[in-house]
Amino acid sequence: MSTPLTFVSRLAERMLDFISFKRMQGYDYTASAGYLRRFDAFLSSRPEFGQGLYAQEVDDYRAGIRNLSRPSRSGRLSVVRQFSLYLCAFTPQSFVVPKHYVPRQPRSIRFCPLSPDQVSEVMEAIGRSAGGLRADCIRFCIGLLYCTGLRVSEALALNLADVDLGQATLHVRQGKFRKERLVPLSPSVVAAMRQWLSRRALYAGQGRSEPLLVVAWNQRLNGCQAYRAFRRACARCGFDTQPSTRLHDLRHNYACRCIAVWREAQEDVDALLPVLSNVMGHVDFHATQVYIHKDPGALRAAGLRFHRHINPAAESSK
Asked: In degrees rounded to 5, what are phi and psi of residue 170?
């Protein structure tokens, strides 16, 4: 159990209220609270005057962390800026940290495309490496992630009550930002779920609050077990990609596969993006765009269709 953070500066009460406010919004805020605690320790050594924040204090704090790495400075100053905006609502004369004070971080999106055959190969490799319930559980978990787009943490938290085979849905009760949603299951996933439920019945209770993914008697599969088994299986299959393949890449592949299927069916992809956002548990479809990657095959097919559109005569003469 983590030790509660203590704040001692003149702004301690406001800082604690701010952390409660962020957590009420659905943020974990554990790491960010630690960053704010460091700023509180800095302020505690300053002369106590006023209830707001002052530009000179922020400038001195920036100078004190100038030798840290860019990501560290960005994280600490970003939290201070968020707090300054919150504080200004109560103390209008308080200094608001300008956006340019926070070092910009180039965002790199990692993604390793995996075909259905490759995913099947990884699942088979897990079965060969270690038999028994754990291997079966992890193999099913990988297939579930690939076919539903669930976050790893969401899949690991599923209980029996969250599975509705009659409606072919999963109920994600505690997604990111505490957002609940229903995730549809394809017929193949429903069939695989039935097989897994029969397998787990030998090793786990049938209560509604019992874990869906178990590796021993009522023992829930944890992230370390899943991540480690997936990495080893990928290495065994020769998927030595750069960057390395991650379990989270299955979620990226789900989004790309949905887009590809809609394109092949000549559906209006832009109109369906909000649907994909809802299934993946995003606040809005702009977050979903991170998961949509360029597919060379799709780009080539689109180029051929455009070529036929602008030059039909050349196409008919072949």
From this structure: -115, 140
Q: Encoding tokens for residue 173?
A: 């009760």
Q: What tens digit of pLDDT does each residue of 86-100 get?
A: 999 999 999 999 999
Helices (H), 201-248: 223-236
Strand partners, 172: 181
Distance CA(267)–CA(262), nearest Å, equals 5
Residue linked to tokens 């070529």: 307
- What letter does residue 219 receive in the DSSP assignment? E
pTM of the model: 0.62
Q: Which pair of tokens denotes residue 154?
A: 């969401």
Long-range contacts of the stretch 204-213 (C-beta < 8 A, 24+):
206/160, 207/160, 208/159, 208/160, 208/161, 209/159, 209/160, 209/161, 210/159, 210/160, 211/158, 211/159, 211/160, 212/158, 212/159, 212/160, 212/162, 212/163, 213/137, 213/140, 213/141, 213/155, 213/156, 213/158
Residues 271-292: pLDDT tens digits? 877 888 878 776 655 555 555 6
Count of positions (residues) in the chain: 318
Report the range out of 17-21, 260-264, 292-296 with the highest average pLDDT. 17-21
Residue-range domain boundaries for the chain = 12-101, 116-246, 251-316
Contact 255, 147 (CB under 8 A): no
CA distances from 277 to 75, 157, 267 (A): 27, 20, 16
Residue at token pair 């943020």: 27
CA proximity to 267, closest of 275, 128, 300, 179: 275
Q: Does domain 116-246 have CATH number 1.10.443.10?
A: yes
- Distance, CA of 24 to CA of 28 (rounded, Å): 9
